[in-house]
Specification:
This protein is mainly α. It is built from 16 helices and four strands. The chain starts with 13 loop residues before the first helix and ends with a strand. It comes from Forsythia ovata.
Length: 409
């Protein structure tokens, strides 16, 4: 359609006839056009005509402009390289204090994977990077990058754990959807989700599980298990589910009762064995003897919480061992080794369940007395550690209760 030119009767030049201000609006065809659409070059006179001349044209133009702006915000190769250099330099400076410079190197390819948000496994690392990572794990360097875990037994909600007469939890956790919906209305209720749930089925009397009378040393054995549980959870930052089998091996390695069939006869004997394991080369990176003495505070706190909290602890220990038994099936081990670990786990699970039933039957005053006894023995251990500053090695405790302790140089 040819453009409509408004002419006057007076003579005019061609320049006057073709001036943009003399072109009729192509939308309303009533007014002179003042503007040109940047998308389709059509002439229009007002904002109303611009909006109505072509909706598709307008939306397409705006979309292309947005995309163009976003593309301009994307970093170019030079910017990416600068970011990589900064990350590499920062990484090397952070690791220099704890490792040799050659062992703290991350390849550019690995850093790019991290920047892209991809998950990195040991298989993705080079031999040198894998050595660096393993040294960092062994030395405890990686613990600086992990947010410390708050033990459930130190939370205020732990004081309100309650179990029924049959041992089953009186407060059952809600399903995930319900807990999300009520998150803004019941903060105290949500805190209870931090506590390991108690038994799902009623606990039978301990006398029903064995023909023999319960050992008078069960309270001592319980302390050994509590300490080992607290050590394992602190070692794994509260997440034993990430590696149930390895967590169970740590639990059995620290516990004389669960892992070695030990029968400690006094509280001090049980504590000294646990402190010896904590101070061993395998776990020294956790803090050694001082860390072990700190775990005694965990044991005391749990005993003061009472029987309900102890049952929940033992129930969580049982779940840990059961999960380890499932993981063991997928492990590539020699048959004899698999059978050996399986038998240890089964034996530990039975012991934990028996002691859990026994704990549920005990009167409340038992636990405060036991906590006071552990606290008294802790004072002796702290005094010994302050004077010797060595690694604890415990021998058989004499009938008098006096421990035979020597320092390993």
């Amino acid at each position: 359609m040819p453009e409509t030119i408004i002419t006057s009767e007076a003579p005019s030049t061609s320049t006057q006839f073709n001036h943009p201000s003399h072109i009729i609006c192509r939308v309303c065809e009533k007014q002179f056009s003042q503007y040109t659409c940047p998308r389709c070059n059509i002439r229009y006179c007002s904002l109303h005509c611009y909006k109505s001349h072509s909706l598709r044209c307008t939306e397409s133009f705006m979309r292309e402009n947005v995309v163009q702006e976003m593309q301009q915000l994307q970093p170019d190769n030079e910017t990416k390289q600068k970011m990589l250099d900064i990350l590499k330099r920062f990484h090397e400076e952070e690791e220099t204090d704890s490792m040799d410079e050659d062992d703290s190197y991350l390849s550019e390819e690995t850093i790019q994977k991290i920047m892209s948000g991809n998950q990195i496994s040991l298989d993705d690392l080079s031999a040198e990077e894998r050595k660096c990572f393993q040294r960092a794990v062994a030395s405890g360097e990686l613990s600086k990058l992990i947010k410390p875990w708050d033990p459930w037994w130190l939370k205020p909600s732990a004081k309100y754990i309650s179990l029924g007469q049959d041992g089953v939890s009186l407060v059952q956790p809600l399903v995930e959807q319900d807990s999300v919906e009520s998150s803004g209305n019941d903060m105290e209720g949500n805190q209870l989700h931090d506590i390991p749930p108690g038994p799902e089925t009623p606990l039978p009397p301990a006398s029903k599980l064995s023909t023999a009378d319960p050992s008078p040393l069960l309270a001592v054995h319980l302390i050994d298990i509590i300490y080992s549980y607290c050590f394992t959870l602190r070692l794994y930052n509260g997440d034993w589910q990430s590696d149930a089998l390895e967590s169970a091996m740590v639990l059995l390695g620290v516990s004389s009762v669960l892992g070695k069939g030990g029968q400690p006869e006094t509280v001090l004997e049980a504590l000294l064995h646990c402190l010896e394991q904590t101070s061993s080369p395998a776990y020294r990176h956790m803090g050694g003897l001082q860390f072990g003495l700190g775990l005694l505070d965990d044991v005391i706190s749990l005993l003061y919480l009472g029987g309900a909290a102890l049952v929940c602890l033992l129930c969580d220990t049982q779940r840990l061992i059961q999960a380890a038994e499932k993981d063991l099936k997928s492990e590539k081990l020699h048959k004899s080794k698999r059978v050996e670990i399986k038998n240890k786990l089964k034996s530990a699970e039975r012991k934990v369940y028996f002691i859990m039933c026994w704990v549920h039957e005990q009167p409340a005053e038992v636990w405060s007395s036991l906590a006071a006894l552990v606290n008294a023995e802790k004072s002796s251990a702290v005094e010994f550690a302050s004077s010797k500053k060595g690694t604890v090695r415990s021998e058989k405790v004499e009938r008098t209760g006096k421990p035979l302790i020597e320092e390993v140089q």
